[in-house]
């Protein structure tokens, strides 16, 4: 019975295509970015412009593909119960450098409207913690984002 269960789990995990894995990873990353955008309960014009442009640059998407991804991630993010469901996907598939880039993007979004609210700060810090990044990496990404403003 245990052998059959192992076989089922192995065959099920191999059924996910690389395209589907990439899609799930992108949705997880965008959902985390949306956590920052909606942390202060307002969507500024700067944030609304910055998020799609970040996605088109970082993921080589068209504007419409980026907007579709944002729309789908908004639905997922709205039904989520914790950051863990997004960070676990990222931990499974991303390098430390990719995680740092995500945190940098989160900081850039947080500072896009000219002010950092405490909820944005808390979400980014919690995300970095769940991504197993060092505090020094978190601060380094924050400083880069602040210099880029």
TrEMBL record:
<dbReference type="InterPro" id="IPR029024">
    <property type="entry name" value="TerB-like"/>
</dbReference>
<feature type="domain" description="Co-chaperone DjlA N-terminal">
    <location>
        <begin position="27"/>
        <end position="143"/>
    </location>
</feature>
<protein>
    <recommendedName>
        <fullName>Co-chaperone DjlA N-terminal domain-containing protein</fullName>
    </recommendedName>
</protein>
<dbReference type="Pfam" id="PF05099">
    <property type="entry name" value="TerB"/>
</dbReference>
<dbReference type="InterPro" id="IPR007791">
    <property type="entry name" value="DjlA_N"/>
</dbReference>
């Amino acid at each position: 019975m245990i052998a059959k269960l192992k076989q089922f789990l192995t065959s099920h995990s191999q059924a996910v295509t690389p395209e589907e894995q990439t899609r799930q990873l992108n949705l997880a990353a965008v959902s985390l970015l949306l956590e920052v955008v909606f942390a202060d309960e307002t969507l500024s014009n700067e944030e609304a412009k910055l998020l799609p442009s970040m996605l088109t640059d970082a993921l080589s998407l068209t504007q419409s593909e980026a907007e579709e991804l944002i729309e789908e991630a908004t639905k997922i993010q709205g039904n989520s119960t914790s950051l863990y469901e997004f960070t676990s996907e990222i931990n499974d598939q991303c390098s430390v450098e990719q995680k740092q880039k995500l945190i940098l993007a989160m900081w850039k979004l947080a500072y896009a409207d000219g002010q950092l609210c405490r909820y944005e700060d808390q979400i980014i810090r919690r995300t970095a913690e769940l991504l197993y990044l060092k505090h020094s990496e978190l601060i380094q990404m924050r400083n880069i984002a602040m210099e880029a403003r």
